[in-house]
């Protein structure tokens, strides 16, 4: 009997090990160390399908991606000032793999060996039809990491950046501005966001922030961003510190160019008008001052001439009285 139970135990152990091995073999991975996802991939159709801040190891991140048919990349972000976090990415757009990698020391990317089109899962649909994602207030959380995130401000109906502490946040927490805008763009309190809404939502007046210089902010994180240089009419990369700064800040070069270059004529006209008025103002002011001085001189000369021509020649002579009007004492003399 003991031999029987030993045999059963060994058999079950083998089955458990084999099943675990089979699960591991269900997905084969191509490890890309020190590479991150190029933001251009999102413009080409890639999308974040899950943010798993509670998973901080590569095996757990791979397993989470392996369980989803619409996941082709498992990305483990390792910021210098915070704990690692897992992100799942869908790379398929119109049947093509659109994910492009670029060097980055803060990420580990695990790509599934075979990428095939997949239908979005129910969880993905819930992610993009969740009103709570767009109506919840910004929540930093109690932890002290410094992760750049974006949240939807229901009052201004726009996506804004904030620093996420790394734990106990809420669903209004997006990895990129594009993801935030595509999910919540234009949403009001009772609206349901449209997941098909374009991610390239331009502000009402891009010239206001496309003309200002880049600002890294007051914090000391290191997030690669892009700003529009109005002098060279191109978008350039800079390092954003993670807080503060201004609106001339974009997550990708193409998004920067689409936002600012499309308004180039508008803000060039504003800039040229400003440049025209500056010298014109000084020219008009100079002419006005000279004209005033000339007018004052002419008036002064006219007054002096008038006085000279109206002086009487007898003004300096005595006015003598006639003899009959002389005093009596002068007659006796």
TrEMBL record:
Signal peptide location: 1-20
Molecular function per GO: serine-type endopeptidase inhibitor activity
Membrane among keywords: yes
Domain of life: Eukaryota
InterPro entries assigned to the protein according to its UniProt record, in alphabetical order: Kunitz_BPTI, Kunitz_BPTI_sf, MANSC_dom, MANSC_N, Prtase_inh_Kunz-CS
CC annotations in GO: membrane
Transmembrane segments: 277-299
The organism of origin for this protein: Alosa alosa
Keywords from the named record: Disulfide bond, Glycoprotein, Membrane, Protease inhibitor, Serine protease inhibitor, Signal, Transmembrane, Transmembrane helix
Signal keyword on record: yes
Location of the MANSC domain: 30-110
Residue intervals of the BPTI/Kunitz inhibitor domain: 134-184, 210-260
Name of this chain's protein: Uncharacterized protein
Location of this chain's protein in the cell: Membrane
